[in-house]
Predict the structure.
Amino acid sequence: MTAATIRPRRSVLYVPASNARALEKARALPADGLILDLEDAVAPAAKVAARAAAVAAVRARGFGPREVALRVNGLTTPWGLDDLAAVARVGADAIVLPKVEAPDEVHAAEAALAAAGAPAGLALWAMIETPRGVLAAAAIAGASPRLACLVAGTSDLTKDLRARATPGRTEILTALALVVLAARANGLSALDGVHLDLADAPGFEAACRQGRDLGFDGKTLVHPRTVDAANRIFAPDEAEVAAARRVIAAHAEAEAAGSGVAIVDGRVVEALHVEAARRTVALAEAIAARAGSSDA
C-alpha cells in the first residue's frame, strides 16, 4: 500500500444540497470528503430543486482534492430512481445509498446507474442505519464491485433500537463493530456516524477516538466546525509514523539476516505488524500530499 493507493476519509461532511451557501462554502473546507445530501437534510417540497442544485454544483467542479459523494433518496421513495438517473454522469466520486437493508437494494441501484450510463469508476457507498441493515451488513458489503464504503447511520439506528443515546455509545457498539467487520471482510472503507451535539466538543472528540479505535477510517460530520478535530484524531501522529518506520526498518533487517521476527521498542514484530505499519506511513503520506495540493 502506498500514498497513491490510499484515500484519506478522516472527515466526510454532509452538505444539504438545498443550501446554496453551504455548497459554496464546502469548496474551501479542509474536509477529506463531502456528501451532498438529497435525503434527510432536504424537505420533500425542495427535493427536485435540491437535485438540480447538486447536479450543477458537481458539474461546476471546484472541489479540489475533496472526495464528492451524492446521497440520493431511497429507491422506494418518489425521488430515488430520478435521483440516480440525474446524478449518474455528473462527475461525482460516489453515490450514497441510504438505509440499505439487503443486497438486492444495492443491485437495483447498480442497475439503475448502469442504465443511466454511469461510468465504471462511480462508486457506491451503502449506509447501514437500521437493525435489519446491521444484521445483513456482511451480505450488503459483498453485493457489488462498485461498493467502496459502508457508512454507519447511528442516529436512525439508535432510534430504531429504541435505545438511549449515551456518551460512550454502549447501546450501538455491537452494531458499529459489525459494520467495521463487514467492511474489512470485503476490502471496503468504513465511516462512523455523526455526533449531533455541536456544543459538546469533548464528547465529539471522544466519539472520534472511539471510532478510530474500533477501526473506522473516519467520521461523518454535520457541521464544518468539527472537521479539524476529526482530521487530527483519524490521522496518525508524528510518534505513530516514526514508530511505524522503525517497525518496517527493523523487520527488513531481520529478514535480511534470515529471521521473520524483530524486536522494536521491546515488542515482538512480525509480518502482520509490518503490513499495519506500511498502511500508517502510506496514510500519513497521502494526508501530507493532500494538504500540499494547491486548494486543499
